[in-house]
Amino acid sequence: MTSVSIRNLEIRYGQHVVMDKLNLDIRDGEFLVLLGPSGCGKSTLMNAIGGLTDASGGSIHFDGRDVTWADPKDRGIGMVFQSYALYPTMSVRRNMSFGLRIAGVDRAEIDRKVAWAADILQIEHLLDRKPAALSGGQRQRVAIGRALVRDADIFLFDEPLSNLDAKLRAELRLEIKKLHNAIGSTMIYVTHDQIEALTLADRIAVMKGGVIQQLDTPLNVYNKPANEFVGGFLGSPAMNKVDGGFETRDGSLVFDTGAFALDVDDYPFDQRVESGQKATLGIRPEHINPANGSSKHYSGKLSLIEPMGSDILGWSDFDGISLSHRLSQEDHYTVGDSFPVSMDVRKASFFDQATGNRL
Fold this sequence. Notes:
Elements: E1 4-13, E2 16-26, E3 31-35, H1 42-50, E4 57-62, E5 65-66, E6 77-80, H2 92-102, H3 107-121, H4 136-148, E7 154-158, H5 166-183, E8 186-191, H6 194-200, E9 203-208, E10 211-216, H7 218-223, H8 228-233, E11 240-249, E12 252-256, E13 261-263, E14 278-283, E15 288-290, E16 298-308, E17 311-318, E18 321-327, E19 338-343, E20 349-352
Parallel strand pairs: 3-8, 3-9, 6-7, 7-8
Antiparallel strand pairs: 1-2, 1-4, 4-5, 9-10, 11-12, 11-14, 12-13, 14-20, 15-19, 16-17, 16-19, 17-18
């Protein structure tokens, strides 16, 4: 296993600054996911770690060894890309062993490594087939196997599942998770798919504009987003956002949106807030529930119902503010029904309107 340490990394293309003084530590055996929208710098960062993109400044170390200017072949990495890049005229066995044969590895050792990787990926029965005879998921397994046989210290995955359909993505996601548990190697995984990030990662680095916005466990990134961007980027259905301000009423702190006032005495603030301060409330649909007789409830009117299989999503109007929330499959609602709800303020998020940072 190998740790990765990135210090003050700069990447520039002419006058265009992609990354400026980025710092990141990845632990031995960790599964780190780089998550963010297209153009946020996550693939650029991975390519710099793999040696495919030159750094303009800063340094990259593997277990204390400076690899900033080392060639990709000398870094001890295995890479899996979005495109399978398999040789169409070679069998699966020869595709997986190609790099080892070029490196002059002994035939018996090659056979042993290919058999080991094929067993882990459950593709033993495919070894003599050509890529054209494989499904997309099988081809991606072969691409992963090709990286595995190299005995790499670090595995880099650059959106490896984005070309697959939803069912195959779910299956391969499970296989990659099992693979990490089996071999325990350090893995760095790039994706814009939040489900992949939340299910695979030990930690997630959420990126925007070449900057890491939050580096934390999946649960903390989802439940305690560091800023409004992170809160809005993660979550499907998306987090509800409502602007308002804090006021003191009868000795209690409330958040007034103009449509309703939310008692926030139970909210675990990270920093001091004052009456009159403007903020944005972020609350996820699953934290808005039917009031069921709760003394603290807010009355809305159902404006839209979206069946989503295991869930039903409702949209209710609260005096001009539209909020999404869960509906029970046991109850039967229709558009126009009154829908009183309670809001779990302890699981909400408040963001400063000036900085966007969590309060």
